[in-house]
Design a protein that fits this description.
eight-stranded parallel barrel; alpha/beta; about 15% strand; two-stranded antiparallel sheet; 12 helices; about 290 residues
């Protein structure tokens, strides 16, 4: 059996820290970088971010939608970026937020995490809102291949709050998802794993107590559920506040930044990443 995704993530943390650089070629950023709003533009953008990330961070997160908008040429650009990243020690999380049932979900798995995938990555973001158990077969397949999933739990967009804060027998939907992930991780983790292979997406800008997730700040299970936390930087959360925001869970957080470093442009990207890394490390040391 291959190494678990949790062990790969822990290696990335140990070697490079917990910062994740998002590859998000917004139209405005493409123009700011002097690139065309086209498949060629997102290809050049992605390759430049990849080059700046190698040796600085251990994790990158391409946002699939910005490539998908350009059809087959956009996907070809993403394939090239993914295949180049596969030659490095980067952990690639594809942010595609897929979710369905039965054979359809299995097809999504094959497209992104399967043996024949042309988009090599270590993990995929998925939605549990067709029922958490709709992910069961994909989770089993991911364990066999040493792959991971990041499941939407509490997202930073305000439209999600009414659903994610809804309660069932006193437990919020967000907390139920996080709790199920904790259970799965205790069962599927390797004997020496500190981190599970199945993470939760939890916005860094949120009040965790309001979503029923205050336990993240105090609980210390044997195997921790990784947290993919967007919202740092341009969305308002400060990297230096990571310990205050996540408490005892801070050492399992992947702190994702995109616009706050990407807006530095190709010439300033290397320095912007280094600055973000220092801010995050200072925040973790303060905890």
């Amino acid at each position: 059996m291959p190494n678990t995704f949790g062990s790969k993530l822990e290696t990335a943390f140990s070697n490079y820290g917990q910062l994740c650089v998002g590859i998000d070629p917004h139209e405005e950023l493409l123009l700011d970088w002097g690139l065309p709003v086209s498949a060629h533009g997102v290809r050049e953008f992605g390759l430049k971010v990849l080059e700046a990330s190698v040796g600085r961070v251990g994790i990158i997160k391409p946002q699939v939608s910005f490539f998908e908008r350009f059809g087959s040429k956009g996907f070809a650009a993403l394939e090239e970026i993914a295949q180049q990243a596969a030659k490095t020690d980067l952990v690639v999380i594809m942010d595609a937020k897929r979710g369905d049932i039965g054979t359809t979900m299995s097809a999504y798995y094959e497209a992104w995490l399967g043996k024949q995938s042309t988009l090599p990555c270590a993990a995929l973001t998925v939605s549990p809102y067709l029922g958490f158990d709709s992910l069961s077969e994909v989770m089993a397949s991911a364990v066999e291949r040493g792959k991971g999933l990041f499941v939407l739990s509490a997202t930073s967009n305000p439209e999600g709050a009414s659903l994610q804060k809804a309660t069932n027998a006193g437990t919020t939907v967000a907390a139920e998802i996080f709790g199920r992930l904790n259970e799965v991780n205790q069962i599927t983790a390797g004997p020496n794993d500190r981190l599970g292979s199945f993470g939760a997406v939890v916005g860094a800008t949120l009040n965790l107590l309001g979503f029923g997730l205050g336990a993240i700040q105090t609980a210390t299970p044997q195997v921790k559920t990784p947290i993919l936390a967007p919202g740092f930087g341009a969305q308002g959360a400060e990297l230096g506040d990571i310990s205050r925001l996540f408490g005892e869970g801070a050492d399992s957080v992947i702190a994702s930044v995109s616009r706050s470093v990407l807006q530095a442009g190709p010439a300033g990207l290397h320095l912007a990443i280094d600055v973000a890394k220092r801010e995050l490390q200072d925040g973790l040391m303060a905890g």
